[in-house]
Amino acid sequence: MDTWTVQTGYPVINVMRDYSKKSASISQHRHLRDIIYPKDASKPCWWVPLSYSTKSNPNFNSTTPKHWLSCPEHSQTIEDLGDEKNDWVIFNNKMAGIYKVNYDERNWNMITKFLQGPDFQTIPTLNRVQIISDAADLAYIGNLKYEIFFELLKYLKQETEYMPWKAAIDKTDVITKHLKKSASYGKYKEYMRHLLTPIYEKFGGFEVTTDPEKLDYIKLQALIVSRSCAFEVANCVTQAKTLFNKLKGKQSDNVIPKDLRSAVYCTVLKHGGEAEWDFLWNKYQNSNVATEKSTILTNLGCTEEIWMLTRYLEWSLNDTQIRRQDSSSVFASVSRNNVGYFIAKNFFYNNLDKVYKHLLTNKKTLSRYLSALSNQITDAKDEKEFDRFIKGNKKTFVEIKKGVDQSLETVKINIQWQHTHAEEIANILNKYSK
Q1: Across 373-385, average pLDDT
Q2: Label partner for 281 (CA 20 to 30 A): which of 143, 360, 379, 416?
C-alpha cells in the first residue's frame, strides 16, 4: 500500500502482446502529463491490480484482480491472453484501478474497430471513457500516435452516453486550443462537424425534454449543442438565434432552458452585434440570480467585435460595472475567444499597473490573469513576448511567484506540443479531408 500512499502520481500500464503465444508483457512507468521533462530517472513503481476482459470473454463486471504487477518488479508476462488472433484485450475493468493503459498498435486498432461496430456497448460506459481519456493523454505526451486517437473518436457517431462524450469533448477542446490559430483549423472544424452532426441531429438540435429523470440526457444535449454551434454544425447557429429572439420578445427566461443558455448566448454574440450584446448586458445588470449573472458574464466575452471586447475589459476594472472579484473571469472569457485573445493580451500588457491597483486587496487574483493568458499561448513569438513581459515586471509579480512559474511552465508545454504534434495532426486532417 505504501507505493500508493507515500509517493505522488500513478502509473501507466504498458500491454505489449505476443499474438503467436497468446501472451502479453506487462510493464509500468510513472504517468507524466507534461512533455517538457525527461523521463523519470528514479523509476518509481506501484503494486498494480490487473483486471482485464477480452472480446471472447468480456467479463467487465469482474473487477477482482486476476494478477498483480508487483513492485519493485517493473514487468511480468501474462499467459493465455485471448483465444483468437482478433481478440482485443482491455485492462482495468470498470476503471477499478487508478492507472492508465497503453497497448500495442494492433490491440488499439482492434478496440477501435469493435467500438465502430454494432456491439460497441459490450464495452461498458466506464471503459469507453477510459479508452478515450487514455488514448488522448498518451497521444498528448507522445506515447501514442494521434492518428489512433482520431480514428477512435469516429465511433462517437453512435455514442449516446454523456460520460464518453464529455471525455471526448474535454480532450478535443485541448486540440482546438492548439489548432485554432493554425492553417489546419479549417480541416479540423470539418472533422469535428463530422463527429458532432449525427448526435446533434439525434437530439433534434435544441429540442428540449422535460423529463427530470433524464439528467444525463440534458447534460449531454447542452454539451453537444455548445460544441455544435461552435463548429457551425447544421442549423445550430440559426436555432440559437431563433431562441434568442424569442427571449428578447418576452420577459420570462424560461424561453431558453437554463442548461442551453450558455450555448445560445455565446453563439448569438459571436454571430451578432451591438444590439445583442447590449441586451445581455442589461439583462446581467438587472438579474438577481447568481447563476444567470455568471452565465451571462462569461459569455459576453464571445463577441468578435474588437471595440466591444476592449470596452468589456475596461469595464472589468470599474467596480460600478463589474464586481472586482469577477474581473479575472471577464479577462479569461475574452482570452478564450479567437479574436479576443489578442485583445486580452495587449490589454493586460499595456494596463498591468491598472489591473494591479484594481486587485490590490487580493493580489493573488493576478495569478488568474496570468493563467488565463498563458493557457492560450501556443506559438513561439507570443512565448518570447510573454517571457519579456514577466521579466520586465518582476516587482509586480514578486508576491505570486508560484502563479508566475506555473504560467511559464504552461506556455512551455503548449509550445512543445506544437513542435511535437502540429505537423502530425495536419497530416492526419489532410488524410481525412481527401
Answers
A1: 97
A2: 360
